[in-house]
Amino acid sequence: MRIGAVVPVRLGSERLPGKALLPVEGRPVIAHLIDRLASSRHLSRDRVVVCTTRDRSDDALVGVVEGLGARVFRGSRDNVLDRLGAAADVFRFDALVEADGDDPCVDPTYLDRALETLLADESLGIVSVEGLPLGLAGKAFRASALADVRRHCRTEQNDTGFMYYLTRTGLCRHAVIGVESDAHRHETARLTLDYPEDLEFFRALFRELYVPGEVFGVEAIVALLRRRPDLVAINASLTEVFWERTREKAQLEYERDGVVHRIEV
Question: Which partner from 62, 112, 185, 257 sits 20 to 30 angstroms from 106, CA to CA?
Fold first, then answer.
């Protein structure tokens, strides 16, 4: 079983251009995310693949990512399902974990739990995590499940909501794992990078918790945010804006048994 990580990311963001290369504690955002993925029990840095586009605007990612010991795949700008699937084919991955490039604090322990749950049951296509703060939960899925949903996808512009093809269509079997402890829950914290306020939040968070060469986990994050509600307040108001935008842009269709269906978001 060949296991890899795929990270969809591009620099041409409308809301925060170039965000993957913006500095947090002296290092680009993407470096912190690669550190976390590489700390998984099941991954090495050369199995982490940053999946970006063929656009010239994303050229700057290549040298940075490769300098961190990770790999780069370049594919479709808007069809992220196709981009990830093509990367899985090129690197011959059988099972994958996925973390969005917007989520530099994704938790590697929960990625490992999701992956191990997936590998323990051959009938599963994807495993996701429920109950963590927004931006901390990645997913684990089989390359075969990704290939199957790609065949059924009928919306080429799926950069918003592409994972719903795996989790909300019934095209593959989906399992959900929960949090291990209430110490890993925070109902209002927002740990995803879309807006300038999110960048301010991450810079404040990393100033408190980051130690070079180490990876801080969800328990440390939640404990800090419970002590420091002022940090949560920096960007918490943007969560509803985030979901409204997702509902507006995720107009996703797939075909099954000759009938085209719309994914409910």
Answer: 62
